[in-house]
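RETRY 2/3 - previous attempt timed out on the joint model. Re-submitting the same 684-residue input unchanged.
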Amino acid sequence: MPAIGDVARLAGVSKSTASRALSGRGYVAEETRLRVEEAAQRIGYIASPDAASLVTGRTKNVGVVIPFVNRWFFGEVLEGAERALLSAGYDLTLYNLAIGGPERDRVFDFFLARKRVDAVIAVGVDLDEREVDTITSRGKPILALGGTAPGAPRLAIDDRAAAGLATQHLIQLGHTRIAHLAGAGAGSAARSVQAMRTAGFQDRMSAAGLVPVGEPSGVIEADMTLPGGYSAGLQLLGHPGARPTAVFAASDEIAFGVMRAAERLGIAVPSALSIIGFDGHEHAELFGLTTIEQYPEEQGRLAVETVMEWLGEGYGEVDLATAGVPLATRLVVRSSTTAAPR
Amino acid sequence: MPAIGDVARLAGVSKSTASRALSGRGYVAEETRLRVEEAAQRIGYIASPDAASLVTGRTKNVGVVIPFVNRWFFGEVLEGAERALLSAGYDLTLYNLAIGGPERDRVFDFFLARKRVDAVIAVGVDLDEREVDTITSRGKPILALGGTAPGAPRLAIDDRAAAGLATQHLIQLGHTRIAHLAGAGAGSAARSVQAMRTAGFQDRMSAAGLVPVGEPSGVIEADMTLPGGYSAGLQLLGHPGARPTAVFAASDEIAFGVMRAAERLGIAVPSALSIIGFDGHEHAELFGLTTIEQYPEEQGRLAVETVMEWLGEGYGEVDLATAGVPLATRLVVRSSTTAAPR
DNA sequence: CTGAAAGCGCTTACAG
DNA sequence: CTGAAAGCGCTTACAG
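RETRY 2/3 succeeded.
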């Protein structure tokens, strides 16, 4: 494994000069630089990142903390972030954060507290102050993408407004018997994404003088997955008497599950039941699902660019003020919603 | 940021002793060890992994090369690997490998060639010799999980046999008009997973004296996604005359797409069309999909354990001979397959 | 069982 | 514009 000394010797310069030539920092005669680069090329020299990190304090590595890999939204964010990081010459270290418990503490206290990453992007998780502190106290910036992290900058869509828009869509179609399938945790974690979506739903319902309809309260929490939506849907739609004519699902995956439940129960969509989802899942088009689109892959990229900016990686073009909160969403109407049955 | 010197001073020992006490390597008096550990604890000392790596040559980091994050199989593998790595005290660096091109070269020549990882797990990708070489020539072991990597150890299910089993299931149900929706690339990359599944299909068809049925050849390549299966399904099932009575889809995601296509075309499943998938997708049960299950999360864990064994991390319990090829699969019969219509 | 010293492979002031 | 030297924070022979 060639070291910088080998390059220097071959190029007939000192290690200092070789280092400057290769890194582009400091003065080096053009001709010398060429000679050094050639030498490096010739022997296949690649600088040891560990040695470099040790002296610069920079690792060229960003940690991504994420609660799931296997849900559409998160997978997209991860792919977007990975691509952006790679093209900036950074590694991505993945921390798949379990919801809580000792594993979670270990990620913060052991893994992230070491100096292995230059920054942390926390995707869709709600961090507490201590967790944020563990990271920032070591001088590493942290960015929350969705989710919350007290004291840390945040990049997010306006979940509350967007959920309001979804609800409004149903109301405008003349629905009055509307239910909401909230994401699990909407009732507990007060400022969570799920809670904001539920709040947005309730905003518009109240404004329209409506009350959620369904079993038991018109707002049912569902695991944010297709099976979660399916069983919540069965529960919601199982009682013919109290059945809503429209449902706002907190995610497209929940919505797909409700569609499946409706199919099982013989409830026609959209004629007997309108369904609107949230996310812009890649299957939404195929299933004709009306939804609030957001753009997670783009969000992942944006998060990386923001962090690169912080780290002084000269992404001069990124206008943080413009790129900032709230991120883009869009109502896309398809065939799963229609006017209320009369 | 406290360094080991601070710990040593506080404990009243030398840095050498502090290092030994903390790492557990070499002799240290029990009483001394306690004192050092206490000191470390007190000032919140965490060893710099960069400095340690520089001298030991070990990074406690494993690179995972994976073509997709957002497909069920890959997401599961990733989660399984991540969990196992974390509990072994290792970081996971994610390389989301684009199918080819300069990005891909960059991952091998720049990212993986540096000494940032102790080993590489390549999931579901087909590496060429040069790529394997870049890694092994730097003294780093590489493990192929599914996919292929010439010269590198491989952990995989027996795709060919398992695909044969799926086909056999349809044949035993009395089907003679059987089609196969292959994964894209089955025809080109000779030893790929997709090709093996197609080969397994053809093995059994020939053995039964059957010929694939459908449009145009009875074997259609589909993108291994739900939309991919949908459009291939539409193509396959669109001509009422040449329609098969059973389909073996190379993945559950393709199978879901075919189910959707059948629904669109008004073809009843399973009475008019039996469908069997491959993978054991988390939604298979909900959709009543008969499939060949495999266990990707477990596979990810197993891959990590194998690599840990190589790295001497004392996973003594793992019996590589037993854990080895081929990994477990199982035929799970649900409601998407039934006897051939007569 | 413990400590002094060397060294891992870089980068960065500092002189020149 | 270039080089000698120090130092980043560890670990590991080697003596004792």
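The mean pLDDT of chain B is 92. Closing ticket.
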